[in-house]
């Protein structure tokens, strides 16, 4: 009896071992498998078959046959869609006879199932349009498989700033993302163009400061609703299959404050009230469509009374929050407000997307250590029943850790609870080879130094914002040493070395930009005397430019700053030093009123006006001082009474990307005493609406020999209050920016 029982156990074990044998999918470049899809296969079933066939061939050299029709059974990969399976979900199951079945939910489930086999079992990874890990192996095997997967999220969208990424369908599917943004976009001006209607019907537009301005639409004007409805009706007729349509505020503030709009705003306790009231009226006309609108800046908070209709979709934007801390754990006012807002919107709407910001808009190629806040933020959104996501990441070649950022975000959008550290390590190993530990060390050190400093990240600030926190001189030396080691590790592998070179670009950019903001001195482009130019800075710029050109890296900011433009302006800035014979060098300037930092350009440091360097045309304006004021006075103290031959100040013009006009009037006055006795030595006017101007103007005031010695220089600046027509920014607050102030002996 005992022997019989032992024999039975051995038989069961033997049978179990036999069934657990791997499936020989391809042997020596030959396979007995075919891919079977339904006779009337739909688009995703065909796509799944094609992508499996394509990459199995690239890996093994074996091209699997794609067969139409046939039921599951026998050796083969059977792919079909099942409408009872959740959208985008999939199930993969192998049978004892070696057949494999991929069942997918609608949209992309079959495709994701096929990619899972390629990625999980054949180690095939797609990381960018130019870097795909496709191992070569003529023998491919699979274990017995029984797995299912789905995402809690519905729409998973990451923004690209590169056509190469945008058009790479395989990469998009590998990351389980969609490349068509379908939610709210700034559309008020598209619906009711101010160029068409404002002159004859100013009442259609925002009432501000006692007059109508074409900044936003009037939310309570019935004729505006009618025009918008007719516009949408016409567009929908031309695109009948499209479901999502945008009815959303323009990309700047200044909402209507007429009596009717203010009444709704007061009742709702939020400026979103009039917006939802307006969108609801339009949504009633299109019950089979989804009308999308923003909860953004002034409309971020949910209304207390006006509820969005069932076919109104809310896109909640996190633009006001800090990028360095998880939103839910941040104690700052903006973070607390966002957490309240996401909860409040969830109480009144079932259709919410988050529009999250994961990069620095104005400095794509700049250290932006926020990789470890991606997960808690996405988890916050999902916890509050937000399952539609748009990650504003502007992924493109050369942008800071673009490939890693895309990889992490896509994995998190599919499953917010992944092990981020392990996922990152796997990517770094495949993307940087032997340099991976050093790249990970750099990422960790950067993040740690930011946290220790207590500094914050926004989506506009230049590296010089952080030169005393995590981008100190000592830290930059430390980071540079880490990259030196990384380069040594892959010195003989050109692919990985190029990846390391690209990863180093943000560090080099930070060093260069900080040198411009500290133009003379240890961290600057010139020594303290302004006579010896830094060979080190020149070398960093040349290497930066070499890598940018070699890797064909396109733009460096949302304003399309190119590598060539950056190199040329950096050379120009570095070549113009105002130290010798400049009596104003490093002298104190005060301003009334103080400049506006606007949290986008600089920290309003008036020392930039006398630092010896001229501002460049970097579209983020980090080397300029700006105001949204009509009248400003600058007072320069030369510290001693002296004579001079001229006084100069530079100003900026940029109406292409900003609302910056040259000052309309500049007057220069001098005095021996601070509080009185000023003599005007000249006035310069910039008349008109400045449609075409030089980007940088130097305003020179010659001082005649009859002018007595002076100590104080007063510069009076007048600017426009609002942008005039025909600028697209008409009605918005105008700005003016000034740069270097020099007094020549």
**Percentage of residues assigned to helices:** 25-40%
The best one-word shape is: globular
Task: Indicate the mean pLDDT.
Answer: 92
Q: Please state the CA-atom Rg, rounded to the nearest Å.
A: 31 Å
Mind describing the biggest β-sheet?
6 strands, mixed
Q: In terms of structural class, how would the helical and strand content be classed?
A: alpha/beta
What are the defining features of this structure?
single chain; 745 residues; alpha/beta; six-stranded mixed beta sheet; six-stranded parallel beta sheet; 33% helix; disordered N terminus
Give a description of the structure:
The protein has 745 residues and is of the alpha/beta class. 33% of the residues lie in helices and 20% in strands. It is built from 19 helices and 27 strands. The termini are far apart.
SSE arrangement:
Blueprint lengths: L1 H18 L3 E4 L7 E4 L5 H18 L4 E4 L8 E5 L8 E5 L5 E5 L4 H13 L3 E2 L5 E2 L6 E3 L3 E4 L5 E6 L2 H4 L2 H6 L13 H4 L2 H4 L7 E4 L2 E7 L4 H17 L5 E3 L12 H10 L3 H12 L6 E6 L16 E6 L15 H16 L3 E6 L16 H10 L4 E8 L6 H13 L5 H13 L3 H18 L19 H17 L4 H24 L17 H16 L12 H13 L13 E4 L32 E3 L3 E12 L3 E7 L12 E7 L7 E7 L10 E7 L7 E9 L17 E9 L1
Parallel strand pairs: 2-3, 2-4, 4-6, 11-18, 14-15, 15-16, 16-17, 17-18
Antiparallel strand pairs: 1-9, 5-6, 5-10, 7-8, 12-13, 19-21, 20-27, 21-26, 22-25, 22-27, 23-24, 23-26
Helix pairs in contact: 2-3, 9-10, 13-14, 14-15, 15-16, 16-17, 17-18, 18-19
């Amino acid at each position: 009896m005992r022997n019989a029982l032992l024999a039975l156990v051995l038989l069961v074990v033997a049978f179990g071992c036999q069934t657990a044998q791997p499936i020989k999918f391809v042997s020596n470049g030959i396979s007995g498998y075919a891919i079977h899809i339904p006779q009337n296969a739909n688009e995703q079933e065909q796509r799944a078959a094609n992508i499996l066939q394509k990459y199995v061939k690239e890996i093994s050299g074996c091209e699997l046959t794609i067969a139409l029709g046939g039921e599951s059974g026998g050796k083969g990969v059977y792919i079909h869609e099942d409408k009872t399976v959740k959208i985008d979900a999939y199930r993969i199951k192998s049978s004892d006879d070696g057949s494999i079945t991929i069942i997918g939910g609608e949209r992309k489930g079959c495709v994701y199932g096929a990619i899972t086999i390629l990625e999980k079992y054949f180690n095939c990874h797609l990381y960018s349009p130019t870097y795909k890990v496709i191992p070569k192996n003529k023998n491919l095997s699979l274990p017995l498989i029984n797995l299912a997967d789905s995402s809690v999220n519905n729409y998973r969208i990451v923004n690209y700033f590169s056509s190469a990424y945008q058009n790479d369908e395989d990469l998009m599917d590998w990351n389980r993302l969609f490349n068509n943004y379908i939610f709210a976009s700034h559309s008020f001006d598209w619906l009711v163009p101010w160029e068409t209607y404002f002159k004859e019907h100013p009442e259609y537009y925002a009432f501000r400061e006692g007059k109508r301005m074409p900044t936003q639409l009037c939310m309570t004007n019935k004729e505006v609703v009618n025009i918008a409805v007719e516009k949408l009706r016409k567009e929908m007729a031309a695109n009948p299959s499209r479901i999502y349509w945008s009815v959303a505020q323009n990309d700047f503030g200044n909402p209507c404050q007429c009596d009717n709009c203010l009444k709704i705003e007061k009742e709702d306790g939020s400026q979103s009230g009039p917006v939802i009231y307006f969108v609801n009226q339009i949504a009633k006309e299109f019950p089979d469509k989804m009308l999308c609108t923003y909860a953004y800046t002034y409309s971020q908070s949910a209304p207390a009374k006006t509820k969005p209709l069932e076919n109104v979709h809310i896109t909640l934007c996190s633009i006001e929050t800090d990028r360095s801390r998880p939103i839910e754990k941040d104690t700052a006012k903006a973070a607390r407000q966002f957490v309240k807002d996401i909860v409040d919107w969830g109480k009144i709407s079932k259709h919410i997307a988050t529009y999250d910001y994961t990069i620095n808009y104005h400095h794509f190629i700049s250290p932006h250590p926020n990789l470890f806040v991606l997960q808690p933020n996405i988890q916050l959104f999902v916890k509050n029943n937000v399952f539609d996501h748009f990650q504003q990441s502007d992924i493109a070649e050369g942008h800071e850790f673009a490939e890693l950022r895309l990889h992490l975000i896509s994995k998190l959008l599919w499953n917010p609870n992944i092990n981020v550290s392990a996922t990152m390590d796997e990517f770094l190993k495949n993307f940087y080879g032997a340099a991976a530990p050093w790249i990970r060390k750099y990422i960790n050190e950067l993040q740690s130094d930011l946290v220790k400093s207590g500094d914050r990240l926004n989506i506009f600030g230049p590296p010089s914002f952080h030169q005393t926190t995590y981008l100190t001189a000592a830290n930059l030396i430390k980071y540079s040493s880490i990259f030196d080691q990384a380069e040594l590790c892959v010195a003989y592998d050109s692919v990985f070395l190029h990846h390391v070179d690209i990863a180093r670009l943000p560090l080099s950019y930070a060093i260069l930009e900080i040198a411009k903001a500290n133009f003379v001195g240890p961290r600057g482009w010139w020594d303290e005397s302004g006579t010896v130019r830094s060979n080190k800075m020149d070398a960093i710029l040349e290497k930066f430019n070499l890598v940018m050109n070699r890797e064909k890296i396109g733009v460096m900011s949302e304003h399309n700053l190119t590598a060539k433009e950056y190199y040329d302006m950096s050379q120009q800035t570095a070549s113009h030093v105002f130290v010798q014979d400049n009596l104003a060098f490093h002298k104190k300037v005060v301003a009334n009123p103080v400049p506006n930092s606007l949290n986008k350009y600089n920290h309003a440091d008036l020392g930039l006006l006398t630092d010896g360097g001229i501002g460049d045309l970097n579209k983020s304006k980090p080397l300029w001082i700006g105001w949204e004021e009509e009248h400003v006075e600058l007072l320069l103290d030369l510290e001693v009474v002296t004579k001079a031959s001229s006084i100069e100040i530079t100003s900026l013009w940029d109406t292409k990307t900003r609302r910056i006009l040259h000052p309309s009037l500049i007057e220069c006055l001098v005095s021996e005493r601070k509080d009185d006795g000023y003599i005007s030595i000249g006035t310069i006017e910039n008349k008109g609406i400045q449609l075409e101007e030089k980007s940088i103007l130097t305003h020179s005031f010659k001082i005649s020999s009859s002018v007595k010695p002076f100590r104080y220089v007063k510069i009076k600046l007048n600017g426009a209050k609002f942008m005039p027509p025909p600028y697209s920014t008409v009605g918005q607050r105008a700005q003016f920016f000034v740069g270097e102030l020099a007094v020549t002996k």
